[in-house]
Amino acid sequence: MIPDLSQALSWLDTHPHAFQGISRGIERETLRIRPNGFLANTNHPAILGSPLTHKWITTDFAEALLEFITPVDQDINHLLKFLRDIHRYVARQLNNEMMWPMSMPCRICPNSNIQLAQYGSSHIGRMKTKYRQGLKNRYGALIQIIAGIHYNFSLPTSFWCLWNNINKIKNGKETISTGYLHMIRNYYRLGWVIPYLFGASPAIPTYLIKDKNIKLPFESNHPDMLSLPYSTSLRISDIGYTNRTERKLSIKFNSLQSYISSLKTATKTPSEEFMAMGIRDKQGNFLQLNTNILQIENELYIPIRPKCMTKLNEISSDALKNRGIEYVEVRSLDINPFSSIGITSEQIRFLDLFLIWCAMADSPKLDDTELVYTRKNWNSVITEGRKIGQKVNIGHDNKQFLIRKVGIRLLKDLTIIAKVLDNPNSKPLYLEVCKNLKKSFDNPDLTYSARFLNILKEKGLEKTGLDLAEKYHSQFLKEKLEVIEIHKFNEEAKRSSMSQRQLEHDSSESSSLSQSHTN
User: Fold this and answer.
1) For residue 238, what are the domain limits?
2) 264/325 Cα distance (integer angstroms)
3) pLDDT tens digit string along 85-130?
4) How far apart are CA 453 and CA 338, in angstroms?
C-alpha cells in the first residue's frame, strides 16, 4: 500500500539522535481589514518599516496582504512565540484595522481595485510591482489575495551523513539534494494528507467565481459563500491559488538538473496565451514583465519547493545549481482559523514527522503515469476528501485504497518516528499528535475543514471571519511581547526604511550615470 519502512525504522533504534537540529521557518500571509470586514484600502503602514527590506514584516501580492516571516529556528515553542510577537506588534500599529483570520478573502467593495503591493522607486522595487501586475492580468487579483502558510523545513547535515553511512559529506550538494528530491517525490505521492487533516477552506466567497464557468456541485449554505459538502482545501484547487504551468512542464523532481532545466525553460519559453496579452497596453502601461510561461521562477505554484538561500541578485535556479537544495518549502497549508497566528504546534510536529517519513521511505523516480495519478489523488482529496469511502491510487500499479486505511497505515510509521523525536525526559508531544490525528482518519468530521464548515454554515463566511478577527485582535492587544523586545521592532523598521532609501538612491545614481553615457 505504502512503502515498507521497517528497515529504516529499525535504523532509528541505533541512531536516536539523528534528528537533533531540525530547522524550521514560517511565512504567514494575512489581509488587513477595516472594522466592517471589508478589505483595507490604505497603504502599508509606514510605521512598520519598508516591506521591500524588512526582515520579518513584508507584503505579498497586494498592499493590504501582509506577510510575516520568522527567522530559522530549531525550537518549535520559540518559533511560535516569535511569530506571535510579530502579530502582537503589528496589531498595536494598525490604525483601526485588523488581520483577517482565514485563507479565503474578506469582503471586497464592489468595483474597487485591489492595490498592488508597492515597494518604492528603486529598480528592484518597481520590478516587484510590475511582476504583481503580471500576476493580476494573468490570473486575476481576487485569486492572488487568497492567503496561506508556508512551512520551511530542513534536516541537519548530521542526519544526511548518518543516513548515507558516511563520516563526512565530501560532496554535500549532490548527496543532500538527492535526499531532498527523494523527500519531495514522496510528498507528491502522499502529501494530500496535509489538506485532508488541515485544509480549512471548504467554502469560497460567492464573488470569487462570479461569471466563471465552474462545473462543481456547489451548495449555497449562506448568501455570501459557496461550499462543497466534502471539500477540504479549495484554496489549492483549480478555483483557488494555482496555475496550470506545472502540468505543462511535467516536473517530476527526479534530478536537480532536470528541475533547474524546467524552471529555466519556463522563464524563457513564450506562452501563446500570454503573448496574446502583450507586455504593454495602448497607453504604454506594463501588463506583465514578459510573455513567457513564467515571468519569474517564483510564479511556479507547486505544493512543495526545493529551496536554497539566494545571494544578492541571484535567482533561485542559480542558487540551487551552485549550492544545491538546503531546505524545502511546504506550500499546502491553509491559514488555520482555529489559531490566532494561523498555525499550531500540532501541525508543525505532524509536518516534521511526515517530512522525515518522506525522506526515509523508498522513493522511486516519478514517471508520467504516476504523476497523473498523484494529481488525481490531490484533486479528489481537495474536493471530496471527507466523503465516506473516498479512495486514492497508491503505487506504480495504481491500486485504490481507502483514504482512512492509508492514513492509519501512515500514522503507524509516524508513531515510531515520534518516539525517537520525543525527548525521553519530557512530554511525548509527537506521540500525542499521532494519537489525536488518528481520530480524524477514523472520523472525517473531526478534520479542520469539517469543523470549520459547520461554523461557516451557521454564521456565513464574512461574519465568521470578522468575529474571529475581532477576537484575535483583542487577544494580541492584551498580550505582552515574549521574545522580541519592542526596540528591536522599532530598530528593524528604521533600518528597513533606510535600506530602501539607499536602494532608491543607488538606482537613481545608476540611472543618471547610464543617461550621461547615452548622451
Assistant:
1) 19-202+230-385+458-518
2) 16
3) 999 999 999 999 999 999 999 999 877 789 999 999 999 999 999 9
4) 12
User: What's the burial of 210, exposed, middle or buried (CB within 10 Å: 0-12/13-18/19+)?
Assistant: exposed
What's the grid cell of residue 25?
521557518
* Residue 213 is assigned to a structural domain of this protein: no
Distance CA 379, CA 382 (A): 5
This prediction's pTM: 0.95
C-alpha cell at 421: 523525536
Cell numbers given for 235: 484554496
> How many separate domains does the chain show?
1
What band does 241 get if pLDDT is binned at 50, 70 and 90? low
Rounded CA gap, 4 and 6, in Å?
A: 6
> If residue 486 lies in a helix (H) or strand (E), which one and from where to where?
helix 486-518
Burial class (CB in 10 A: 0-12, 13-18, 19+), 247: exposed
245 residue type, one letter:
T
- Is residue 476 situated within a structural domain? yes
What SS3 class is residue 30?
strand
CATH assignment at residue 264:
3.30.590.20
| 433 domain residue, yes or no | no
Asked if the structure places residue 448 within a domain, the reply is no
By C-alpha distance, which of 189, 204, 205 is closest to 234? 204
What is the C-alpha separation between 364 and 357, in angstroms, rounded? 14
- Confidence at residue 170, expressed as pLDDT on a 0 to 100 scale: 62
